[in-house]
Amino acid sequence: MHIPLSPKSRRKAAAAASKEEDERDDTTLDVLETVSQVRAKVYSKRHKEQKTIAFVPTMGGLHQGHVSLIQLALNKYDFVVVSVYVNPMQFAPNEDFDLYPRTLEEDLEKMKNLRENARMCVFAPKESLFGKGVDPSECAHVTVPNVGQGLCATTRPHFFGGVATVVLKLLNIVKPDAAVFGRKDYQQLKVIEKMVRDFDLDVEILSGEIVREPVNGDASDADSCPGLAMSSRNTYLTEKARKQAESISVALKDVADGISGRSDEFTPAMGANMAQGWVGFIKRCIELSGGKVDYVEIRQRETLEGPVEKLVKGEKYVVLA
Ligand code: PAF
Question: Considering the entire predicted model, what is its pTM?
């Protein structure tokens, strides 16, 4: 159970935090472990220093993709809170909650390399945000219909409810002006945007580009997998599986290259052929590499409505795999 701070103790905590701030060395990155520490820090930044606040939620295992989201937040806002929390509610009992990479020391080093310690803090809760010893399935739970169904939810039906619930909790704890999510997890981004709209949450949602393994990386490096979208879970992949995973980005890029600059040639009659052609092509590329397809779909880019079976000129789509 989290006991909210009274206005008096909040002011006291903020004064103590800001005294500590004045005295501290800029090489130190603040790592906060409790909800009240984060609330006090944000209160002090916002009300004493009049700073704008951005928030980057992560589950740790940081890679360049996360770093780019943190950089995006630092570019647009005065102060950035990064959370590192492996959320039990988004894992089904048979999934990898115990195995999920927990690399806090390395994560902190990557954040320190940004040389923005004075403009950042890390929220790395030591205890479950759902309460010590409390089963998360006993807690209030957010459901996001439509965009939260199909695609990834077909094989992981529990997933988006768990993500939306913890993000709502984190937004209530940090109360940022903006929160940043990666477009790699496009359905997750849309789920969060819908939750924010449906609950009238007063927060701007920013999205960051997918960061991929370098295409001109060292080819002799067994780990090199040009174009593969960076993900904390890539560390699970064997060399063979990494090569299979690479087929997704290669196929998506081929489709994107094939379309770009060709909209003048598009006729209504081509709409259905193109949609089926792309989906079939991407599925085949994945299967030929030895991979197994969960889904390849074209959806409306903003609403995720679909699957789209016939393309219409002027509409904006996203291809998801
Ligand atoms: O994308 C992630 O890492 C997680 O789903 C998030 C948004 C941090 C919620 O646990």
Answer: 0.90
Supply the residue whose CA is at minimum distance from atom 1 of ligand 1: 58
The active-site residue, picked from 2, 47, 63, 66, is 66
Please tell me the distance between residue 187's alpha carbon and the centre of ligand 1 in angstroms: 12
Count other C-beta atoms under 10 Å from residue 312's C-beta: 10
Q: What is the mean pLDDT of residues 218-230?
A: 69
Whether the predicted pLDDT of 221 surpasses 70: no
Helix, strand or coil for residue 199? coil
Count Cβ atoms below 10 Å from residue 264 Cβ, excluding itself.
Answer: 6
Pairing mode of beta strands 178-182, 297-300: unpaired
Q: Is 66 a catalytic residue?
A: yes
The mean pLDDT value for 299-316 works out to: 94
Name all residues whose Cβ lies below 6 A of ligand 1.
Answer: 57-59, 87, 90, 163, 166-167, 185, 188
Strand segments, DSSP code E, in the chain are: 30-32, 53-58, 79-84, 120-123, 178-182, 204-208, 297-300, 317-320
In order, the DSSP letters of 41-69 are HHHIIIIIS---EEEEEE-S---HHHHHH
Q: How far apart are alpha carbons 54 and 74 in whole angstroms? A: 8
How far is residue 202's CA from residue 141's CA, in Å, rounded to a whole number? 20
Domains of the chain: 29-208 (3.40.50.620), 219-320 (3.30.1300.10)
Span from the CA of 301 to the centroid of ligand 1 (angstroms): 21
Residue indicated by tokens 């359905």: 187
